[in-house]
UniProtKB/TrEMBL annotation:
It comes from the Bacteria. The lineage of its organism: Bacteria, Pseudomonadati, Pseudomonadota, Alphaproteobacteria, Rhodobacterales. This is Xanthine dehydrogenase family protein molybdopterin-binding subunit. Coiled coil: none annotated. Residues 31-142 form the Aldehyde oxidase/xanthine dehydrogenase a/b hammerhead domain. GO terms for molecular function: iron ion binding; oxidoreductase activity. Gene3D superfamilies: Aldehyde oxidase/xanthine dehydrogenase, a/b hammerhead, Aldehyde oxidase/xanthine dehydrogenase, molybdopterin binding domain. Residues 1-20 are annotated as: Disordered.
């Protein structure tokens, strides 16, 4: 490993950005002072409970609405028979990023848990009891669940979420030229987001204005989706989402509960609160669709890829089209002259899947990294050596130069910290002191570094402090903290001098907290809003004969610590407050936008990268698999807050552990219901599942992604990790398990 590579955990890059601040909202959250959506209880509130379908397919023949209405607390029961009209057909898509919703449009059942009725009552208990009293009579049809039973279809026949087939070079010629061809088929199961905070909404109407408290990853952007159902302008929708207890993608899209609550509030003229139960989080709120992936890797005698094909069949619902774009990872990860990527779908009687924790890259990289491990072994090469031989110097899909790519440094740092170089080539060679089989595996992490559109406002106040505003979403990742740090840097103020306002659709649009692009996008908007303030302030000072900065001309004016000064002439300086006071201004407002420079977007491939190394220990008698060590090294451009970035990367790696060994939704084949719709049966990692974990970052300058040099760390850590763990399981046991999660019985 080169000597100059060192972890940059606590690097200082600026007076604010670069500092490992703790979350600004952390104390409020852990002391219970933070008010989440479901904590709101406006006067006159009605409680709503969704009665969900007990089977996955069929029709509701009868509901005992009379029994429910006879309950003393129940006020209304809304079913397809009396459901008030909506302005928009829920089976039509109004916007591109829109899902078809089950909103009591008819008596069909399309998945278990789909709404059959909405019960409204004076108390939560009465609403729940009313829902039970409905005692549905169901005409059930057999559920079609699983790749064997699902209806296959070509991705080209659908619209949203169906990735186009892509080919680079001549794949057949590439396979013909290969010295060896590795073929791998891997399945990944349905997975559910399981945010700690359940989906919840408090909806109230003020005339033609709809006011909503709901956790939301795309606060301003989602207004049109709500508005379309009620025929009101998007500006009439006011969404408040100050805190989210996790999202993982599920709070980026609408769910039926949200629209039904708004509808009920309009119908009853009262505020309505609807909180999903934990069990109801498995059905109508999206999930990660199952995949069946086929990979072929051609490798020449020198250990170089000659051809790579990756086809994914992704499960979706019977009525909508989102496909987990699993195969796309093959387009951008390794150098290869011929790559072919395609997707098709399989329709199951399930709720429509959606984005969840690196949608596509997580599932795709899990399969690709397993296939790469097999190909390396077949070629007689160390897995890291094999990846270095196939290092992509330019983006394989487009040939574009990378905006930055410090993956080689990640491989070197991760391998060094992990101790990779002593790894034996053959499996089953290592044991720990307890006699357990030890195995080491690795994987490459890759995630796009996108930017969306965002706006922000910064207002400098007479006392020299500032308010910055953008409707960002903090799911717990620390977005507000990192964004406030960026805003402070743009303003040349200490973080303590900056009041950050967010989480409300009345504020400028911060875009979506998704795609790992929130910090880059909203951060760029905040930064440029701050720079706009400084430019105005500079103009005021330099034009004023009474200012020490008067007539600065072309000399550089620096803004820092609440002062403007002329570079190299430090006695020529003036505080922000003094400039405003003499100009007779109470405040100065600046505006900024965040979006990618289209010229750079055209010319450069932009990705975050990383390398994950895993050690597992397998008990030879019980076949229990434990992850004993995980080391990740990541390059994600400029790190704004090392403490929060490390937490996000660790979190991503822990998602990868859950992916590899635990997370899976199990369907009852007859009813189509989930057998494990709770956190007792749907396993996610806890501290005891992981002995030792480390996330390191390597320094990476990027002049193209955005002026801040920020890429993103939200989803990077899950990619590479699941494959690294599966490869470690093989290295311990000699068993290639082709289905995630890997169970002890798979090793028997
Ligand atoms: Mo995410 S799955 O980018 O919210």
């Amino acid at each position: 490993m080169p000597d100059d590579i060192a972890p940059t955990r606590h690097q200082r890059l600026g007076s604010n950005a670069g500092d490992p601040h703790s979350r600004l909202d952390g104390i409020a959250k852990i002391t219970g002072a933070a008010r989440y959506a479901a904590d709101n209880a406006p006067a006159g509130l009605l409680w709503a409970v969704i009665a969900g379908a007990p089977v996955a397919r069929g029709r509701v023949a009868r509901l005992d609405t009379a029994a429910a209405l006879a309950h003393p607390g129940v006020t209304h029961v809304i079913t397809p028979e009396n459901r008030p009209a909506l302005h928009k057909d829920p089976d039509l898509r109004a916007a591109l990023f829109d899902w078809k919703l089950d909103l009591l449009q008819d008596d069909r059942i399309r998945y278990a848990g789909a709404p059959m009725a909405l019960v409204l009552a004076e108390t939560a208990e009465a609403a729940a009891e009313g829902a039970r009293l409905l005692a549905p009579e169901i005409e059930a049809d057999p559920a079609r669940i699983g790749f064997g039973d699902g209806l296959a279809f070509a991705a080209e026949t659908v619209g949203i979420g169906a990735p186009p087939a892509t080919a680079v070079g001549d794949v057949e010629a590439g396979f013909a030229a290969a010295a060896q061809v590795t073929e791998v088929e891997i399945e990944t199961p349905p997975q559910y987001h399981n945010a700690m905070e359940p989906h919840a909404i408090v909806a109230q109407w003020q005339g033609e204005r709809l006011v909503i408290d709901t956790p939301n990853q795309a606060i301003v952007m989602s207004r049109p989706s709500f508005a379309a159902y009620f025929g009101i302008p998007p500006e009439n929708v006011h969404i408040r989402s100050p805190y989210l207890g996790g999202g993982f993608g599920s709070k980026a899209i609408l769910n039926p509960a949200q629209i039904l609550a708004c509808l009920a509030a309009r119908e009853t003229g009262r505020p309505v609160k609807l909180v999903l139960s934990r069990a109801q989080m498995y059905g109508p709120t999206g999930h990660r669709g199952a995949t069946r992936q086929s990979l072929r890797l051609g490798v020449d005698a020198a250990g170089r890829l000659t051809a790579l094909s990756h086809h994914a069949v992704s499960a979706t619902s019977s009525f909508d089209d989102f496909l987990e774009p699993a195969a796309n990872a093959a387009l951008n990860t390794y150098a290869c002259p011929a790559i072919s990527v395609s997707h098709s779908g399989s329709r199951w009687d399930i709720g429509t899947p959606g984005p969840m924790r690196a949608p596509g890259e997580a599932t795709g990289s899990a399969a690709l990294e397993c296939a790469m491990d097999e190909a390396a072994h077949a070629a007689g090469l160390d897995p890291l050596d094999f990846r270095l031989r196939n290092y992509a110097e330019t983006d394989p899909a487009t040939g574009r130069a990378y905006s930055s790519k410090a993956l080689r440094e990640c491989y070197a740092l991760g391998a060094e910290r992990f101790g990779w170089k002593t790894r034996p080539m053959q499996p089953g060679q290592m044991r720990d002191a307890r006699g357990r089989l030890l195995g080491w595996g690795m994987g490459t992490s890759l995630f796009p570094a996108p930017m969306f559109q965002a706006e922000a406002r910064a207002t400098l106040r007479a006392d020299g402090s500032a308010v910055v505003e953008t409707a960002a979403s903090d799911m717990g990742q620390g977005a507000w903290t990192a964004l406030a740090q960026i805003a402070a840097e743009g303003l040349g103020l200490d973080l303590a001098q900056v009041e950050f306002r967010s989480g409300d659709s009345e504020l400028p649009d911060a875009g979506v907290a998704g795609g790992s692009g929130h910090t880059a996008t909203a951060g760029s908007a905040l930064y440029s809003a701050g720079r706009d303030v400084i430019a105005q302030l500079t103009a005021l000072a330099t034009a004023d004969p009474a200012s020490p900065l008067h007539g600065a001309g072309n000399r550089a004016v620096v803004a820092a610590d609440g002062w403007l000064r002329i570079e190299g002439e430090d006695h020529r300086r003036e505080s922000y407050a003094a400039i405003l006071a003499r100009a007779g201004r109470d405040a100065l407002t600046g505006r900024g936008k965040g979006a990618r420079d289209p010229a750079h977007a055209e010319a450069r491939a932009m990705f975050s990268h990383g390398a994950v190394f895993a050690e597992v220990a397998v008990d030879p008698a019980l076949l229990q698999i434990r992850v004993t060590r995980l080391t990740g090294a990541f390059a994600a451009g400029r790190i704004i807050n090392p403490k929060l970035a490390e937490s996000q990367l660790l979190g991503g790696m822990i998602w990868g552990l859950g992916f590899a060994l635990q997370e899976e939704a199990l369907h009852d084949r007859r009813s189509g219901r989930l057998l494990n719709a709770d956190l007792a049966g749907y396993h996610v990692p806890v501290n005891a599942d992981l002995a030792e974990i480390e996330a390191l970052t390597v320094h990476e300058e990027d002049r193209f992604v955005n002026p801040l040099g920020v890429k993103g760390v939200g989803e990077l850590g899950i990619t590479g990790t699941a494959g690294a763990i599966a490869n470690a399981v093989w290295h311990a046991t000699g068993r290639r398990v082709r289905r995630f999660p890997i169970h002890p019985e798979d090793l028997a």
